[in-house]
Write a structure and sequence with these properties.
Strand content: 35-45%
Shape: elongated
Order of helices and strands: HHEEEEEEEEEEEE
Largest sheet: 7 strands, antiparallel
Helix content: under 10%
Number of helices: 2
Structural class: mainly beta
Strand order of the largest sheet: 4-3-2-7-10-11-12
Length: about 200
């Protein structure tokens, strides 16, 4: 978790990994030599029963090095992350109608989180997404939409700051690999949009 952005609220940092443990966490710290970090193409829940993992752990416990032909390199993907600090919930919808958010987990490689009043969604690049913003309370929100590389480095960042919101407010942002569109926002929830 970091709070380095202008918003002053927490967000999850560093993508990649197995969908449960981010790559930055799986790498541990500087006490793990880079030559002692291995990868396997497996879901987190399947690691304990994966034969390549079982064999590698057994070899490591006996003081050896695992057969690297059974292991892989880390997945190298870029992502679009949308982070909201506020009384607003965010959902991403792909061009095929799949959603990633509190009401669905349908986008392969997508993730969504809620930490306190912060709502966040991550989706892989390579598609066009509509981000739906829904007010959950009264106040203001800041939306940070970033495109990050496989190491979590920011490639592009758009910030929509101090936007007024109430429970009936609705908005959308279009996101493509080429960039981030404007925020179309209906403060009163009556079908009248303002571009921000």
């Amino acid at each position: 978790i970091n709070d380095n952005d202008e918003s002053g609220c927490a967000e999850l940092a560093a993508t990649n990994g197995d969908g449960t443990v981010p790559l930055i966490s799986a790498r541990g710290s500087s006490w793990i030599p880079p030559g002692n970090v291995w990868y396997v193409n497996e879901e987190h829940i399947g690691l304990p029963s994966n034969l390549a993992v079982i064999h590698a752990v057994s070899v490591i416990l006996q003081g050896g090095s695992p057969n690297t032909s059974l292991l892989t390199s880390p997945a190298r993907t870029t992502a679009t992350t949308t982070h909201l600090c506020s009384p607003v919930q965010v959902t991403a919808t792909s061009s095929q109608g799949q959603i990633e958010g509190p009401n669905g987990d349908q986008i392969t490689g997508g993730q969504h989180f809620t930490i306190g009043k912060s709502s966040e969604v991550w989706v892989p690049t390579g598609d066009t997404y509509t981000l739906q913003l829904s007010g959950t309370g009264t106040g203001t929100f800041t939306a940070i939409v970033k495109q990050v590389d496989q190491d979590g480095n920011t490639l592009q960042k758009n910030i929509f700051s101090n936007v007024p919101v109430k429970p009936t407010s609705q908005g959308t942002i279009q996101v493509t690999d080429a960039g981030v569109g404007t925020l179309s926002f209906d403060y009163n929830g009556k079908g009248v949009l303002d571009s921000i």
